[in-house]
Design a protein that fits this description.
The structure holds two protein chains of two kinds. Chain A has eleven helices and eight strands. Chain A has an eight-stranded mixed beta sheet, sandwiched between helices. In chain A, helix 3 crosses helix 11 and helix 4 crosses helix 6. The longest helix of chain A is centred in the C-terminal third of the chain and has 19 residues. Chain A is globular, with a radius of gyration of 18 Å. Chain A starts with a helix and ends with a helix. By secondary structure, chain B is α/β, with parallel strands linked by helices. Helices cover 39% and strands 18% of the residues of chain B. Chain B has eleven helices and eight strands. In chain B, helix 3 crosses helix 11 and helix 4 crosses helix 6. The longest helix of chain B is centred in the last third of the chain and has 17 residues. The model of chain B has no long low-confidence stretch (mean pLDDT 95). Classes of the chains: A alpha/beta, B alpha/beta. The interface between A and B is medium-sized, with 32 and 36 residues. Strand 8 of chain A pairs antiparallel with strand 8 of chain B.
Chain lengths: 302, 306
Amino acid sequence: MSLHPQGIALLEMMASLGGPLIEESTPTEYRAFQATRVMPPTEDIHEVRDVSAGGVPCRLYRPNANKNLGLLVYYHGGGWVIGSLDGYDASCRALANRMGHAVLSVDYRLAPEHKYPAAVEDALCSLRWAYDNADELGIDPNRIAVGGDSAGGNLAAIVSQQRPVPLVFQLLIYPATDMTQSRESQVENAAGPILTAPVMKWFIDHYMPENSDMKAELASPLFSPDSLLKGAPPALIITAQYDPLRDEGEEYGRRLIANGVTTSMVRYHGMFHAFFGMLGLLDDADTAHSLAASMTAKALNG
Amino acid sequence: MTLHPQAERLIALMATRQQKSFSEQTPQEARAARATTDYKSDEHVHEMRDVNALGVKCRLYKPRAGNDMGLLVFFHGGGWVIGTIESHDGVCRSLANQSGHAVLSVEYRLAPEDPFPAGLEDCIRATLWAHQNADDIGIDSTRIAVGGDSAGGNLAAVVAQLQPVPLVFQALIYPVTDCRMGTESYIENGAGPFLRSADMASFIDLYIGDITSPEDPRVSPIMASPATLASCPPAVIITAGHDPLRDEGEQYGHALIANGVEASIVRYFGMFHGFFSLFPWLDDGKAAVSQVSSAIRAALAPPRSK
C-alpha cells in the first residue's frame, strides 16, 4: 500500500489514541465516543443558524449577506448510523466560504433507531423544504445542488435520481452506491484503512431492515434503471485509492456518463475513506475541498 | 471512462484550427501555430513585471503587496520545444491570485536550437536567482517551490531532485518522468487526444537526441536513486485519464511515497494532456487550478500559521 505519509501518521496517531472498534460497539456507545473527539478549530463564516426543514433539523451556513445565493444541500457521512452536524461543521464552513454560496447541512434520522428509508425520506423532505422556503434561506430555488460524503453521498445520489425539485449539480464524495458490497475494491481494500468491509457491513446491517431488497433504487443507486440516471444533474465524484467504496463510486460515475450526464471524476491516490473530512489533519482534505467548491460553485453561479 | 463532454468539444474545436499534430510540424511551425491560439488572460494581478534572472527572461507575478510571500518558480510545458511565458501567462496569473503567493515564470531555452541540458540549466539558474534576490523580489527565500506542466513538470521534478537551493514543495502537472516511453498508458492513450506518443517521441528526440540516454535521471526523474527521491520536497501531482503520460506521473508519485516523501496524486479521469492550461474552457481545469493553488497556499504558508 502506498499511503500518503500524512495518512500514515494520522492513522498511527488515531491508533495510539485508542477507542472502541466500531464493529464491536453499539451505535450509542460509538456516537458517545465520537462526541469526545476533539475537532480542529473551524473557520469564521458570515452566518450560521439552525433551521427546521419541515421537521428535519438542519444547519444553514451563509458566507455573505447576498439574498440570492445558490445552495448546496449537504448530507453528512457516517454509515447512516453515526455522524452529526457538529462533526461536519468545519467541512460545511469551508465549502460555503470557498464556494461563496450557502450550505444546508441535514441532520437526517439515524439507524438503527430509524432504519431505511428514514434517512432518504429526511433527505428528500429537507430538500423539498429548502426549495419551497428559498426566500427564508436567502437562496435561489433554481440554483440548488445536493452533495454528501460516504452514506451522505449515497443519499445525494439517490436524491439526484429522484429529484423532487430541479437540481443543478450533485457532489458525491466517495459515495456508497452498492449495499451488496459486490465490487472489487470491497475485497482489495477490505482491511481499510478506517473503513473496513466488516465496518461497512455493520453500518448496512443497522441501516437496512432484514429481508430488504438491497438493490432497491432508494438503497443502492448503482442498480437503478437508466430512466432514473438520465436527466440527473451534472456530477463530480471524488474517490480514494484505498477505499473499499472506490469501485462502486467510479462505476456509478461511468453509469451516469453512459446515460448522458456530464460527470467529472477525480481519484485521490494514496488516500483512504473519510479523508475528505479531515480538514486541518490532511493536506489532501484541504485541496479536495477547494476542488469540490470550485466545481460546485461553477454550477451554483448559474 | 470516456472524455468529459467539455473536453470533446474543445478538442474538436482545436482540431479545426490545427490540422497537423506536433510530430508532423517543424518546431518553428508548432511555435507559430501555438502563438495564434494562446489564451490572452485579462485576470488582474497586483503586480506583473519581466525580470532578467542571470540572463534568463522571467516574469514575476505578485498577487498582493507585501514582502512575506512564498514563491513558485514555474516552468511552462511544451515538450521542451514550444511554449513561452505568454503561453502560460493565464495559468500563472491564476496560480498567483488563488494561492496568494508569488509566481516566477521562466522562459528557458528551447530545443532543438538549445537541446538538453540548456533548458534545465536555465531553470536552475532562475531558481538560484530567485533565492539570491528574494529581498528585492519581496519573497521569503526559505519558502520557494518549483512547479510546471508536462515538460515543465519534468524540469520541476529534476530541479526538485537537484535542489540548487532549499525547496519546500513541488507541483507537477501531468509531468514527463520517464522518457523510456514504456508505460501502459502510452499504449492505451497513444493516439491522444492532443498529445500522441509520436509527439512525445519527437519531443524527446529533439530534447536529448544523442546527448544522453532516456535512463538519465536528469531527463527521467523516475530513474533517480532512492536516496535522491527521499530528499525531494513534498509534491502534488496531477494526472489526466486520457494522457499517455498518466501512468508515469502516478508512478513517480508512488515512488516518492515509497521513499517517505509526502506526495498527493490526483487523477482527473475525463481529461486529457493539456487540460490544466486550458482551464478557461474546462471546469475540470478550473477545479485543478483551485486544487493546486490550495496545495501551494498551504505549502508556502509561513511556519507559524501552519
